[in-house]
Design brief:
heterodimer; A: alpha+beta; 8 helices; 5 strands; elongated; B: alpha+beta; 5-stranded mixed beta sheet; 1 helix; 6 strands; globular
Chain lengths: ~220, ~70
């Protein structure tokens, strides 16, 4: 492992041993990936916009082609954002049998406001050193500085868990070792918070709004 | 009363309860804890708002220890 410095809980996440090749995901790593995603987005959108402008300048009757080029420039980042937002969508078998029990347990781990938010949205808000996290059943969003969001795919290994227990698993692991949690998780997307918000189910958006507010 | 709980399909299950003065109950809890470590569970001690600690031995003075499954990138 490249770096194993403990953070929040003073412990190193044991799951890190399953990904020994990964560099520890710290603030610097996240900023670098944020810049790479921004450059990548620029690289695949600017040519479509430039081509659209050029086409209509050369031949005004080709305006429909220009519109198609602009649509590509808009749709491709939206697809990436959809992929990012999907990390917190409910997934897999619901195993609802123990949900009431699990909900009570998860509620005990959260503060009053976070508990209410989780019951409304299904997502748990957690303030960390890297930013403000929004934790779902099978993934998490990390809001850094209000405008940028990193999306991570990560889940508990037991598929029989009720939804709130899945959130509790991720929350406890995050609290043990925040950077370790981000390292074990698969990074799915980094980009504008407003773009991810548009792709979230409507009922989950208040959780991202609260995280952006808390990240001020 | 301290508790050792496992997160599972039922939400959570209490595996053992003990007090710092009750050696027999604590030893029974330690057995449960070690048995679950062998099954691949991870011991976590929630120790305050926003904090948790990975534990390899059951702390006698803990109020709550949670056995959870490992997480992995999805």
């Amino acid at each position: 492992m490249e770096a194993a410095a403990p953070d929040r809980g003073g412990t190193v996440l044991p799951e890190l041993s399953s990904v020994p090749w990964r560099a520890r995901t710290d603030k610097r790593w996240l900023r670098r990936w944020g810049r790479i995603w921004l450059a990548w987005t620029t690289l695949y959108t600017v040519p479509f916009i430039a081509a659209g402008v050029l086409i209509v300048a050369l031949e005004p009757l080709a305006a429909p082609v220009t519109l198609a080029a602009f649509a590509h420039a808009w749709i491709i980042p939206e697809l990436y954002a959809y992929r990012g937002a999907s990390v917190v969508r409910p997934k897999g078998a619901r195993s609802e049998g123990g949900e009431a029990n699990a909900q009570g347990f998860l509620g005990d781990l959260l503060g009053h406001e976070e508990r209410e938010l989780q019951r409304r949205t299904g997502l748990a808000l957690e303030r960390g050193e890297l930013g403000v996290w929004v934790v779902g059943e099978a993934g998490a969003l990390l809001v850094m500085g209000r405008r940028r969001v990193h999306c991570f795919c990560v889940r508990a290994s037991d598929p029989e868990l009720p939804p709130s227990d899945r959130v509790a698993h991720l929350l406890l692991a995050l609290r043990e070792d925040e950077e370790g949690f981000a390292t074990v998780a698969n990074h799915a997307f980094a980009g504008a918070a407003w773009r991810v918000r548009r792709r979230l189910p409507r009922g989950m958006r208040p959780a991202l709004d609260a995280a952006r507010q808390a990240a001020r | 009363m301290a508790r050792l709980v496992r997160m599972d399909g039922s939400g959570h299950t209490t595996l053992a309860e003990w007090t710092a003065r009750d050696d027999a109950a604590f030893e029974a809890a330690v057995e449960e804890f070690r048995g679950h470590l062998e099954l691949g569970y991870i011991g976590t001690l929630p120790d305050g708002p926003g904090r948790a600690t990975h534990v390899r031995e059951l702390p006698r003075e803990a109020g709550l220890v949670v056995m959870r499954r490992p997480i992995a990138g999805g």
